[in-house]
Specification:
The protein is α+β, with helices and mostly antiparallel strands. It has a domain at 6-59. It is 18% helix and 25% strand. The chain has one helix at residues 45-59; strands at 6-13, 16-23, 33-37. A 3-stranded antiparallel beta sheet has the order 1-2-3, covered by helices on one side. Strand 1 (6-13) and strand 2 form a beta hairpin.
Length: 85
């Protein structure tokens, strides 16, 4: 997860909207760092905002760890070797 990322929407030319995902500058970094951006203009502010939100959500998606298969995999039970009596 990247909590320090921000979504920025800009309109450099009237009617051409671009989204950018940036990491704001901190104490040693005075200017923001560009992480990702739109590949082309979008027709409205809302379209750019939605596309940027989808890209940001994809970057912050939690990583799913595989669940072990077999008995006890769903309950996180460890299998211990034993002797049959």
């Amino acid at each position: 997860m990247n909590p320090a990322l921000s979504l920025v929407i800009e309109e450099p030319i009237a009617g051409h909207y671009y989204w950018m995902i940036v990491r704001p500058g901190g104490w040693l970094r005075l200017s923001p760092t560009l992480i990702n951006s739109a590949s082309g203009p979008l027709p409205s502010y809302q379209a750019a905002q939605e596309a940027g939100r989808q890209a940001l959500a994809a970057m912050q998606a939690p990583v799913d760890h595989p669940i072990p298969s077999g008995f006890g995999g769903a309950w996180d039970i460890m299998t211990m070797p034993g002797a049959l009596v």
